[in-house]
Amino acid sequence: MGSRAIDATEETMTAFPTGTVTFLFTDIEGSTARWERAPDLMRAALARHDALMRETVAEHDGLVFKMVGDSCCAAFAAAAGAVGAALAAQRALANEDWGPVGPLWVRMAIHTGQVEERDGDYFGPPLNRVARLLAAGHGGQTLLSHATHAVAGAELPAEATVVDHGRHRLKDLIEPEQIWELRRPDLSLDFPPLRTLDARQTNLPIQPNELIGRDAELGELRILLRRPGVRLLTLTGAGGTGKTRLALQLGAECLDEYSDGVFFVPLASVSDPELVPASVAQALALRESGGQSLQELLTEHLRERELLLVVDNLEQLLPASAFLSELLAAAPGLTLLATSRAPLHLSAEHEYAVPPLGLPPADVRDADRLREFESVTLFVTRARGVEANFELTEQNAAAVAEICLRLDGLPLALELAAARVKLLPPSALVARLGKRLTMLTGGRRDAPTRQQTLRKTIEWSHDLLDDPERIVFARLAVFVGGWTVEAAEGICGEDLESEVLDLLGSLLDKSLLRQGGRSSMLATIHEFALERLDELGERASLEREHAEYFLRLAEEAEPGLTGDDQGRWLEVLAADRGNLHAALTWSLANDADLAVSLAGTLWRFWYTRGEPTVGRAFLEGALANETSDPAARAKAFAGAAGLMMIQADLERAFELAGESVRLYEQVGDQAGMSTALNLMGSIAFHQGQYEDATALIERSLDAKRKLGDDWGVSVGLLNLGVLIMMHGDAERSRKNFEESLALKRKLGDSQGIAILLTNLGDLALHDGDYASARDYYGESLTMRRELGDRQGIGIVLASLSRAAQEDGQSEAAKAMAAESLEIFADLGDRESLTVVLESVADLALTDGSPARALRLRSAAEALREVIGAPLPPPSEGWRDRAYEEAAKALGQEATSAAVAAGRRLDAEAAVAEALDIVRSNPADRSAKDASGA
User: Fold this and answer.
1) The pTM is what?
2) Which CATH class is domain 546-705?
């Protein structure tokens, strides 16, 4: 049965208690078996149980905030109310006639503590504590924590008494709890011993603090341990992921399932595999006697027992795996739960890779949302341990999220960082995370030595490697953001006798690498590996090999970016974006020729992916050195011009495209020159120089036809079609588009197809055929999203917005305009921004906001003047009609004021006003228009 959240407005007390709250948790003992025997009867009984609990809690000024299955969770501002409700509920349950289903025996637990209330639920350690206390009880029994007894013991109802059961260890493995039982003479007093860790044989150690998060992992692991045939479960993961703490918690939660107990075998301080049997015997409190070997002693003891052994830190003792295998064979009731940075590679083994804690997405910086993520919760909780007043606030939320992301959600790293909060606020911690291994020291003195600094934790794993593994581990640090097997083999293993593939597998086994679609390292491990690479003295030579390898990859991908394999190559380059940028950064500082070649080869990737700012920075940096090869510089000039055109830096773009043409002519490269001519024509078109644009594109198209370059011909036809459309000849334009589209489909050029579909949609929109326009735009948008072409996505959304507006669907138009505005603002695409600003101005006019419409129109016009991109002729009619309509509504004086105010807006302010228009309701927009806001 699932969770049944309760609407607080249905209860007598509507407000959620906050601050120090007393919780009453209940559940029905043995309900599962009753559901299986008589589901209909049990359904009716549960409904009566729920009603009774709600009534009783409300009568004692409490609030039922959640019901899960047959459990009830209630909160009280006063501990006395919770105690009174528990007594009344137990009496009512005992007196109720439950019919054929039999009496319902309900166990209850009450605990008091500080919590946070969010979105109709509570969060904090007291919730875990009361749940553990509830698990210790029996049906009909009510248990109080020491905290509740301390505040309510003197206010017990008449005839109620309490019995001290002493201190017990609960399944949370932190400080033992003083447990009290609440009694009345008319309630049952005969209960079995409490279900605590003390009631079972165990040596599980008390932990200094609670386990944060890991609910999903614990649930999965319990299911695994219950699965028939699973008798060896190994938790693997990098140092600091919390394998030991998770295994201890899992052992505690499984204690009731092993009749002969759960025992912990710590091996961190053991270095000789021969000593493992002695460590197991010690954990089980066994002593050798009568010449019996340890193996015989353990086999005899375990043969008839049902028992779980938690064997911790086996990575340095892997030869002892044979001994553990023999134990499993000799003792059918034995289950092993192991932790190790490397799997044991036994036939009985089931491996579970323990992941880092859950991380917030990169765009989430809101404090309330951040509290939902385990890594943030751990950091905040541990920070409070050293700085009692520490809170997650809107002021520090971004820094805390950055800390969690930069530390990969690694529990040990987060705990070490949190320990620094007493001296450094989160913002200062972020600034120091460039040197994680130096900064993250000073762990708990009672922690194992290898866990007192992050460096020692990683060194522990590194010291277990053999020489070839250490060499490859260090060399892999040259990669940024992961690598493929082919890249690792090509860069790291030329002089090694061992196969790189085998070494990668070994490092992955030992939890020094992460495996997804590609291999990678946690950031903290990567920093350690870089230090080892410096020690090898190979960093400079390896960085050159790395840059040369990724130049070869880019050159292999380049022709595929305009063909039917475009999508795959875009994904390949996107996956290696970190490596490509690292190679460019290195080459800019060390090899000008390589930098120009690599940047020039990648420009179409940046163009297609809508990343003009990044690409332009690299290209301009590479072109700053004038000694490089002229052919490579010609390509780089063309690439820089294309990216500048996206950003509407048109004068500079035209200049660089012309330089590209000159260099291509110098080296006699007709194909490159014709491409650069086409680019010059496109830029001239955006500048409003339509005759020059036509001449340049026709010259390029003629050259492409002579060269038999179908792709170049398709581009020329497309651009000519746009020019013809500007002059109002829709039929000729459509013929050009359709001829170009046929070539693009033949070539498999997805981006080109998407562009042409958008243009055909524009023609349909001009003809008033809104259905066809939406079909063209919709197909184009799907393709652009698949390509990851952000600029293209923004263009199509702007077109769809205009189509929806023309078709009278203003709300849909606003939603698409908003997304388009955000994309263009992020990309710095000022020309495209003007198009959307003009469209939003028309929407404002439709909504009855003529002043705001004029301000946006005027802001867009001023921006066009700045970037040198005049309004295309077909749009001039729309602009003039919009101005006339707004001026007619406002009058001359208000019109002049609105135009002047709009021309003073910079691009950022204009975008902010446009977003406000498309996101607010019409009444708000009209009010702002009337106020001149």
Assistant:
1) 0.66
2) mainly alpha
